[in-house]
Every structure is written in structure tokens, then in C-alpha cells.
Amino acid sequence: MKKFFFTAVVFSFVFAAPQNVSAQNILTAEDAVATALKNNYDIQLLRNDSAAYALDKSYARAAFLPRVNANTGLIYNNNDQLQKFSDGTTRERKGIRSNNLAGAVQLNWTLFDGFKMFATRDKLNEFVKLGELNIKNQMVITVAGVLKSYYNIVHQKQQIKAVEEQMSINEERVKQADKKLSVGLGAKPELLQAKLDLNAQKAARLKEQTLVVQYKEQLNQLMNVALNTPYDVTDTILINNNILLPDVMMAAETNNPQLLVTKKNIDINYLTLKERKADRFPIVSFNSAYNYSKTDNKAVVNPFTPLFNRNNGFNYGIGVTIPVLNGFNTKRLIQQTQLDIDYLKLSYQNQKSQIELGITNAFKDYELQKQALALEEENILLAKENVMISLERYRLGISTYLELRETQKSLEDGYNRLLLARYNTKLAEIELMRLKGDLVK
């Protein structure tokens, strides 16, 4: 009876006790997500694009302001001049030097352009919102990837625990087979098989440990931290059992970032259509200029040519540009923009259909895995009790090692199904939250 109690203690300790991680920091799922949102390259690139949109928006009011240009120039001349007149006289002079100074300040202010400037301003505002939605969409994708990678590591850690539990059983088998062989009640093949099974479990543990290291490096890449960064993850996978299909469906249309990005592109194209239609209207502008010019001739051939001439003055007026015919290019651009809008509307309906299908399939998988998880949690208790009974019977010589190996195999399969059902349930939950747009607030 003492041996039976000892076996039960081994089971509870190996499966329930956390591994020794005192030398490493525990990285929670929340910490991994926060690090990825801060460091992920894709998010940083989209933030740069969003900053460019915001910069354009900050200058949107410039479309309503006048354009002012100034120009000036100074020209020096050194000419030879020959003039012949109808009365037969000739005038010739070489090395005639002169200089000309000219300058102007011009103002052009568009007063009306078919409201195109208003559409452009609104379009720049929508681009800023589009940039924010693109960032959120990438954040949702990144968070989903980080969570899946993180819980994959947790899943492998739980697999290691299960393997170590199998190892404790095989160690007890080796011990009992060795005792039986030493007193003449057992056979050497029985001992050898127990050692082979133990070594197989040790090899399985090494494989799982290697997978944990590899999956950590994948998570490091998603978080954009240095490779070989030391940390450990938690030992449990918590499941949200309260997800309802109608709630996910209802929220997806208003929260899913992918759908919101397409909607925003439709809004932007409607504003582009306004810009195109504005090209059909006349453009009314206010024009004004101040001009200055000065000419200084050192010498002249013609007595009617002034040695010094200066002009300066101010002028202003209204200009109207009326589009008459440009090869029907405006009509073509309007039709092209309308086709873009129709395309985006079809794309939106297609995306919505795919997301609804994805939600339906993910929810079915979520419900299936929850049921499988509940069943396997019950089965694992039965399998563990069966192995403890078989191990005690084997110690007492009532059963053979083949019977014990069979119960061990049932326990191993039970752990594989249990851990896989738990992991798959979490993946389905993450996918539902991603499609719902609820991973990032």
C-alpha cells in the first residue's frame, strides 16, 4: 500500500508542479503582445505611412490660400549695332553697353474650382483615418500571430510535462523489473524493454525541448527582440468559454479592421470622384502683380532710344478658365473612378462573406474542441488511475509488463489528445477574436 501511495504522489508532483524557472523571467502573453506592438517592423512601417498622411493633412488648408511668386533678373549687354535707313543713311556703333533690371511679385488666388479644393481637403482627412485603420489591422494580425506562437510554446511545455510523467512510470518499471530479475521472478527482456521505453521517453523529451527553443526564436522574431533572449512562459492555457456566435457576427462588421479599411477606401474614392467631376466646372481666380523694370543704356545709335528707362506699377483682375474640350479625358477619369468604387464595393462584399464563413468555421471548431477538451479531461483522470492500478498490480506480480505498457500507451494518447484539444480550442478562440476585431482595442 505504501508503494501505491508513492506512485500516486509521483503522478501528482510531475503533472502539477511547475518547472524550475527561477533563473529566468516569466514572459506572459500580455507582455509578449506589448513588446510586439512596440517593436514589430510591419507596424513601424505603417506608422511611418500614417505619419506621412498626417503631414499632408497639416497642409490641407494651403489649398484655400493664394499662390504668391516673386522673380527678378539682371542682364548686362555689350552689343555692336548697325542701322540702315530708307534715305540711305547708315548708323553704326560698336561696344554699346547696357543693363536691364526687372522684377515682379505675382499673386494667383483660386476663388472657385467646382469645389475641388474642398474634396481634396476631405480626402486628406480620410487618408489619415485610413492610416490609423491600416495600423490597427496590422496590429490585430501581429497580436494573433504572437498569441498563437506563445501558446504553441506553452503547448510544447505541457507536452514535456506529460513526457516526464511517462518517464517516472518507466523509471518505476525499470526498478521493479530489476528487482524481479534479481530475485529470480522476472526475465531480462522485461528489464531491457523497460529501459528501452525509458530511453524512448528521454529522446521524446529532448525533441520537445528543442521544439520549445525553436518556437521561442520564432516568437522573438515576431516581438523583434534579440535571438536567444532568455525567458520562460506560463504553464497554463486559459480558455474563454463564453464566446457566442451572434456577438462575433454582429461585432465583425463594425470592428473588423480589414472591412473597415475597405470601407475607408470606398469613402476616399467617392471624394476622388468629386475631384474628377469638379474638372467640368470653370475655374475663377483673382490675379494680381507688381512689376518693376529698369534699362540703363551707356550709349545709343538711334536718338529716339532712351538712355534710361524705368517702369513700375500694380495690376489686378479676375481670370476665368472654362473647360471646353480636352479629348474627353475628364469623362474617362470620372468613369474610371466609378469603376474603382464598384470594384471596392464588390471587394467589400467578398471580404464580408469570407469573414462570415471564417467566423462560422472557427466557431464550429471552437465548440468541437471545447467538447473534446471536456471529454479528454475526464479521460485523462481515468487513464492515470488505470496506470497507477496497473503499476501496483505489476509490482505485486499480478499482471505482466505488457498490460502495464498498454495502460501507459492509453495514458500517452490521452495526454496527446488532451493537450492538442486545449491548444486547438485556444487557437479557435484567437481566430474568433481576430475576425471580430477584438484583439486590439
In short:
With 441 residues, this protein is an alpha+beta fold. It has helices spanning 2-16, 29-39, 41-58, 116-182, 188-223, 245-255, 257-278, 329-396, 401-436, and strands spanning 26-27, 67-84, 90-112, 232-233, 283-297, 308-321.
Instruction: State the end-to-end distance.
Output: 57 Å
Integer-rounded radius of gyration: 41 Å
Named at the architecture level, the CATH assignment is Up-down Bundle
β-sheet strand percentage: 15-25%
Supply the number of helical segments: 9
- Give the structural class: alpha+beta
Would you spell out the secondary-structure blueprint of this structure?
Blueprint: H1 2-16, E1 26-27, H2 29-39, H3 41-58, E2 67-84, E3 90-112, H4 116-182, H5 188-223, E4 232-233, H6 245-255, H7 257-278, E5 283-297, E6 308-321, H8 329-396, H9 401-436
Parallel strand pairs: 1-4
Antiparallel strand pairs: 2-3, 3-5, 5-6
Helix pairs in contact: 1-4, 1-8, 2-4, 3-4, 4-5, 4-7, 4-9, 6-8, 6-9, 7-8, 8-9
